[in-house]
Design brief:
single chain, about 250 residues, alpha+beta, three-stranded antiparallel β-sheet, two-stranded antiparallel sheet, 11 helices, globular
Length: about 250
């Protein structure tokens, strides 16, 4: 499995609306795959489903960077005092932590035992979401993504501590699969790690941009009689100027 793909192109205004319409009623797992299909049109859907979550999110980061720029303006709430904190991230900086390995299985040693691990993919997550509780989900993920090396130990005899250790090793193999940001509240001094999910974040941005685009199309269509296609073919700068004149 190789995730090497052609350079990611920015979403056009029409592609943005199409993507938003296709994924509006879907869950984040499906929305992530929609991002990949737009970013990598030559890749098959089955191949995209096999990408690790870190590989998937790296591609979504590239798509976001090309479409909306490198800087990410995010928000978090202090778990202690509920104070809101604004902070900035960089797509380039986040991408620097992505794994550059295309190997499917990696051999690791854990407490003297030998295991072969592979990163979680979209199919694994889909099954985990359907699990009845977190413990069952972890067991299911380990059963799919961990296998014994020659002379290793059977997965069925693992203790909960061993399971937790192997789950941590899975995260180490694919660091971009879970992005944790160190946070400190200026109001109360509380320190914690906030989870940053690029798929959810970019989708929320896409939702807001798409609604604004439709409002601009409606305004310009009523003002000048242009069709949706004519408005979308304009550059963002030109469309913005016409919107200003229409509102003047």
């Amino acid at each position: 499995m190789s995730m090497r793909h052609e350079p990611v192109q920015a979403l056009s205004a029409s592609a943005m609306l199409e993507l938003w319409e296709q994924g509006a009623a879907r869950d984040p797992l499906d929305q992530a795959l929609l991002f990949l299909r737009h970013a990598c049109p030559t890749q098959s859907f089955d191949a995209l489903c096999e990408w690790t979550i870190g590989q998937r999110d790296a591609c979504v980061l590239e798509l976001r960077q090309q479409t909306l720029g490198d800087r990410i303006e995010a928000y978090a709430e202090c778990p202690a005092c509920r104070n809101g904190l604004e902070f900035e991230l960089s797509c380039t900086a986040l991408l620097a932590s992505a794994s550059d390995s295309d190997a499917i299985w990696t051999t690791v040693e854990q407490d003297g035992r030998s295991w072969e691990l592979r990163g979680l993919n979209s199919r694994d997550l889909a099954l985990a979401i359907a699990a009845v509780d977190p413990k069952q989900a972890r067991r299911m993920l380990l059963s799919r993504c961990v296998r014994e090396s020659a002379g290793g130990t059977e997965l069925e005899v693992l203790t909960e501590a061993d399971e937790a250790a192997l789950a941590e090793r899975l995260g180490e193999l694919d660091p971009l699969a879970e992005t944790l940001i160190d946070m400190c509240c200026e109001m109360c001094g509380e320190r914690w790690q906030a989870l940053f999910d690029i798929v959810t974040f970019f989708w929320n941005e896409l939702h807001a941009r798409s609604r604004r685009l439709l409002q601009e199309i409606d305004l310009l269509a009523r003002t000048y009689g242009w069709t949706e296609g004519e408005v979308l073919r304009m550059s963002e700068q030109r469309r913005g100027l016409y919107v200003e004149m229409a509102l003047a």
